[in-house]
Design goal:
Distance between the termini of chain A: 54 Å
Radius of gyration of chain A: 19 Å
Number of strands of chain B: 0
CATH superfamily of chain B: ABC transporter involved in vitamin B12 uptake, BtuC
Oligomer: heterodimer
Radius of gyration of chain B: 18 Å
Helix content of chain B: over 70%
Structural class of chain A: mainly alpha
Shape of chain B: globular
CATH architecture of chain B: Orthogonal Bundle
Strand content of chain A: under 5%
Structural class of chain B: mainly alpha
Number of strands of chain A: 0
Chain lengths: ~290, ~260
């Protein structure tokens, strides 16, 4: 316990907590819209594209966050431009993802033969984020929050009911592209905490759990943020106390909470299925 | 240039790679036809936790992988109805499994190297045991697929009519997912957990766009998978870049023009 308190006085731990908290807040709010707009798979896809960006940045010697966000933003704008046509195209997205990962493997091999770099990109390394990346994280995170606040009402409207929103003159196409841009930045940020492979735990899980508990947008966002911050703090504290990886704890807390939230949702509203009626989802069809 | 073929590790790589490519191309055809590509992706991620757990208790990763993927595949098959339309659930299970895998590997010494080889494949460093395991499971998978080929094809293309004609559609679905689990576990040795798509889905997706009758598409899919694997191993063995990168790039580079130039019928 004493050693935990000593650790908490270290500047790298404090940096991790500050950056982690901001990233958790941004991810949970963006995640609320991701779940509402049924774009969970897009978040997953963007994180894989980020892997190529992070490894190229390492090769060029520039900031990892810059490299990742460069790649994720480019991919997100491409996805946004394709718009509705991208839905349900899991073969196409899967092929692009694999190619991005393959490129990442190549960049990594060209940069170093050490595999520990790879592992930190794949599973996150918030405790070893550089000072420059912490500063960028704050700039990007606060920027994302400001833009989200500015477009909050029309974005919510167009996410819940795109047809009516469009009829009322809301620029849904522009909002959709802008949102993809914010998602790309958020994914790049979240990768620093949980890594490329576990972005779902920080972006989708808190928001999806919250939407099983309430349907009111503001309460759902508040619960989502509270859960996201709790997973991040819990993950960091447990990792510091036991030396198991942060991302394992965050993923485990997220998964357990999510499945408990489903149960609570079913108990509280036995006749209602949580907001999951969007088309274009992945379907696991049997026979 | 062909002198590299004399090395035993290259021969092992070609042998295991060929078996994996044949199984991958064959199973992949049905994955694409049945619209189950996401299940392949999910199973590979679940297998990562199995491989890491096997390392931790000191057995060959492929056994851990097989156990986890086969259990998960059978589970998806049996509880399939409830899993439908719940992609967030599957995403969260995948995330949990990857997190568990990260934990198991961190508890094991040699964290990074092992994680890297499971995630991105180690065909050039494949052990003799793994070659044998791959051969046995590969031949068994192909034998079962050949035995159920006609009813499986019927139930994949038109499940309602097949069911009406008395084809055991549900049982076939479960057997097929178990075969997918085995194919995924084998493919991991070549391209790793993360790039399963390149070998399992890439060749099949390209083949089904080029050839419109089933037997031809299966043959084309297997031929493409073999070509990608051989070329990837050959290029990696003669150069310095990783096998996984070559296979992923070839798979993508062939798929892209085919995708853009063909109209799905």
């Amino acid at each position: 316990m004493n050693s935990l308190i000593e650790l908490l006085q270290q500047s790298f731990v404090q940096n991790a907590f500050m950056a982690g908290t901001l990233i958790a807040i941004v991810s949970s709010i963006v995640g609320y819209f991701v779940v509402l707009r049924a774009q969970a798979f897009a978040a997953h896809a963007l994180s894989h594209v980020g892997f190529a960006g992070a490894t190229l940045a390492a090769l060029l010697g520039i900031s990892g966050l810059l490299g990742m966000s460069g790649f994720t933003v480019a991919a997100a704008l491409g996805m946004g431009a394709l718009g509705k046509r991208i839905r349900g195209r899991d073969v196409e997205i899967g092929m692009i993802l694999s190619f991005a990962l393959g490129l990442g493997v190549l960049f990594l091999r060209l940069y170093t033969n050490s595999s520990s770099e790879t592992v930190s990109v794949l599973f996150g390394s918030i405790l070893s984020v550089t000072h420059a990346d912490i500063m960028l994280t704050f700039a990007f995170g606060i920027g994302t929050l400001i833009v989200l606040a500015a477009i909050f009402r029309p974005l919510l409207f167009s996410s819940i009911d795109p047809e009516v929103a469009e009829a009322r003159g809301v620029p849904i196409k522009a909002l959709s592209i802008l949102f993809m841009f914010l998602l790309a930045i958020t994914v790049a940020e979240a990768i620093q905490v949980v890594g490329v492979l576990l972005v779902f735990a920080l972006i989708v899980a808190p928001a999806a759990a919250a939407q099983h508990l309430t349907r009111k947008p503001f309460s759902a966002i508040a619960i989502s943020v509270a859960l996201g911050v709790a997973f991040t703090w819990g993950g960091l504290l447990l990792a510091l106390a036991t030396s198991w990886p942060v991302s394992f704890y965050i993923a485990a807390l997220a998964a357990v909470t999510y499945f408990i939230a489903i149960k609570i949702g079913h108990l509280a509203h036995p006749h209602r299925h949580a907001a999951q009626a969007h088309d274009g989802r992945e379907h696991i069809k049997i026979a | 240039m062909f002198s590299i073929l004399q090395y035993p590790f290259i021969q092992n790589a070609f042998l295991a790679g060929s078996v994996v490519a044949i199984v991958g191309g064959f199973v992949g055809y049905f994955l694409v036809t049945r619209g189950l590509t996401f299940a392949g992706h999910a199973l590979s991620h679940i297998g990562f936790a199995g491989a890491a757990a096997a390392l931790l208790i000191g057995i060959d990763p492929i056994f851990g992988m097989l156990v986890f993927t086969v259990v998960a595949g059978a589970g998806i098959g049996v509880f399939g109805k409830e899993l439908r339309e719940e992609d967030i659930n599957i995403g969260i299970v995948m995330t949990l499994m990857l997190g568990l895998g990260a934990l198991f590997i961190s508890l094991y010494n040699g964290y990074a190297e092992q994680a890297y080889s499971i995630l991105f494949g180690t065909i050039l460093g494949i052990s003799h045991t793994d070659v044998l395991v791959t051969l046995i499971f590969g031949i068994a998978t192909i034998a079962v697929l050949a035995a159920i080929f006609r009813p499986l094809l019927f139930s994949s293309i038109d499940p309602e009519v097949a069911e009406a004609r008395g084809v055991p559609v549900r049982a076939l679905g479960i057997i097929f997912l178990i075969l997918v689990a085995i194919a995924v576990s084998m493919s991991v040795e070549v391209v790793g957990v993360l790039l399963i798509f390149t070998l399992l889905v890439g060749p099949a997706a390209t083949a089904t766009r080029l050839v419109h009758f089933p037997l031809g598409a299966v043959a084309a899919s297997i031929a493409l998978a073999l070509a990608y694997t051989w070329l990837g191993i050959f290029l990696a063995a003669t150069g310095t870049w990783p096998v996984t990168f070559y296979i992923a790039t070839i798979s993508f580079a062939v798929y892209l023009p085919v995708r853009l130039l063909t109209i799905r019928s």
